[in-house]
Amino acid sequence: WPDGTHVSGSDLVIGGVPATRLAAQFGTPCQVLDEMTVRRRAQAFTAALPDAEVVFAGKSLPCPEVYRWMASLGLSLDVSSAGELALARAAGFPASRIVLHGNVKTGEDLKAALEYGVSRIVVDSFDEIAQLGALARHGQHVMIRVTPGVDAHTHAAIATGVEDQKFGFSLASGAALEAVLRVVEQPSLRLVGLHCHIGSQVRHVASYEEAVRRMVGLIASCGVRIEQLDLGGGFCAPYLPGEPSFDLFGFAQRVRGTLNYECRLHRVPVPRVLVEPGRAIVANAGVTLYRVCAVKRGVSRTFVAVDGGMSDNPRPALYGAQYVVRLVGRGGKLHPVTVVGRHCEAGDVLAENVPLPADVHAGDVLAVPATGAYHHALASNYNQVGRPPVVAVADGTARPIVRRETEEDLLRRYA
Ligand code: LLP
Predict the structure, then answer these.
(1) Separation of alpha carbons 310 and 349, rounded Å
(2) Which atom of ligand 1 is nearest to the CA of 319?
(3) Where are the chain's structural domains?
(4) Is 89 labelled as part of a ligand binding site?
(5) Distance CA 235, CA 275 (A)
(6) Architecture of the domain made up of 36-281
C-alpha cells in the first residue's frame, strides 16, 4: 500500500482521499497513484546513491506528469521508443538527462532521439551501431548494452541478463568486445559507457555484484576509457504481505565496495554508476479500484467479477503475478474467492483464493495495491474497453494525470 494509507471507519484513505470517494468521482476501474510515495521512493534512490545517476525507467509508468516529478527531483529518464520520448518532450524533460534504450530502435526512434538531442543512446546490435553511425552527427554519446550472463533468479519473461536471448551483446561470446571496437570505429559516435540490465523483480544484491565483477572485467579488457557503468534496473518491490523491499542501502554499500575493489584489481579508473529503477519507485504507490459487477457461486469456487481485468492488468496472465484484494467501505467475515475480470477469456483472473467478506456483492468497491508499475504501461483496450484513468492523490486532493479512454478515443482510429 502507498505510504500513509489507512483505514478510517471501513474506508481506505489513500493520499488523504477516501477510496469510496475516488471510485464515485472518477469511476472504476481507476488507477490511483500516491504522489508522495512516488517522490519518497525516488528520493530514497538519490539519497542512497549520491554519487550515481538515478535514471527513472519511464516504461514502468509512462506519463508526462510523473516524468515532471522525476525531473524536479533531479532524476534522469530512460525511454525506449519515440513514443516514450514524445511523452518526455511533452513533460519538458531535459534532453541532457535522457537515455534511449531498446533492442529494436527503428529509424524513426533514432531520428527522434537525435533531433531532441538525448544525451545517450544505448546500442543493442551491430545493425544499430552502423545505422546510428550513419545518422548521427559528430560525437553522439553511446553506451553498449552487454548481456553479462548473470542469472537474477526472476521470472523467465523478465530475466534479461542470462546468455542466449535477444538483449544486448553477449560477454561470453566476445560480441561485447567486438561491439566496443565497432563503436570506436564510427567517427560520429563517442563511447561513454557500458550498460547491463540483469532482469526485473530482482531480490538479491549479490546478482548485481556479480554483474559488476563481469562488467569491470570487460572494461579492463576493452582497452578504452569507460566513464559510465549503467547497472540497469530491476530492484524488487513487494506485492504480497511479508515480501521484502529491495535492500537499497545494502546495494549501495556492496556495489560501491565491489566496484572499487574490482577497478583497483584491474587497474582501471572507477566509472560513474547509473541505475535505472522503475518498479521500486512506482509499484507500491499505485492502487487500482474496481467495482464488483457480479458474484457467481461455481462448483468449487466463488467468482467475484469486476469491471476491469486483463486489459488493465495482464500481469497475472503473463507472469503468474499475485495480488492482494481488499473490499472497501465495509467489513465482514472473510472467505476465499476468485476475482475475475470482464474479458472473454477463462484466463482473465486477477487474483485466486483471496479472502473477501462472505456477502461481497454487486456494487462493492475492491482495492488492489501494488499496481503502480507496468499497469498503466501494459494496459490494452481488449474487447474495446477504454483504458482506466490514472488519478494522482496528495494531501487530500485528487486529480487525473491520465484521463479515461472514451468511446470517441476508440472510434478515432477506425476507417
Ligand atoms: N532498464 C532497462 C533497460 C529495462 O529494460 C527495464 C525494464 C528497467 C530498467 C526497469 O526495470 P524495473 O526497475 O522496473 O524492474 N512488464 C514486466 C516488467 C518488464 C521490465 C522491462 N524492463 C512486469 O510487469 O513485471
Answers:
(1) 7
(2) 25
(3) 6-33+283-411, 36-281
(4) no
(5) 10
(6) Alpha-Beta Barrel (3.20)
Ligand 1 pocket, 319 CB below 6 A?
yes
- Sign of the alpha-carbon dihedral angle for 49, 50, 55, 60: positive
Please, which pLDDT band fits residue 367 given cuts at 50, 70 and 90?
very high
Residues 39-88: tens digit of each pLDDT = 999 999 999 999 999 999 999 999 999 999 999 999 999 999 999 999 99
The three cell numbers of residue 73 are: 527531483
Task: Write down the pTM of the prediction.
Answer: 0.97
Residue 344 designated active-site: yes
Q: 267 CA distance to ligand 1 centroid (A)?
A: 32
Distance 59 CA to ligand 1 centre (A): 7
Class of domain 6-33+283-411: mainly beta
pLDDT in tens, 262-290: 999 999 999 999 999 999 999 999 999 99
Long-range contacts of 167-172 (CB under 8 A, 24+ apart): 167/103, 167/124, 167/197, 168/103, 168/124, 168/195, 168/196, 169/124, 169/125, 169/144, 169/145, 170/146, 171/146, 171/147, 171/214, 171/218
Residue 315 CB–ligand 1 contact under 6 Å: yes
What span, in angstroms and rounded, lies between the C-alpha atoms of 62 and 116? 18
Dump the DSSP string for 310-338: TTT--HHHHH------EEES----EEEEE
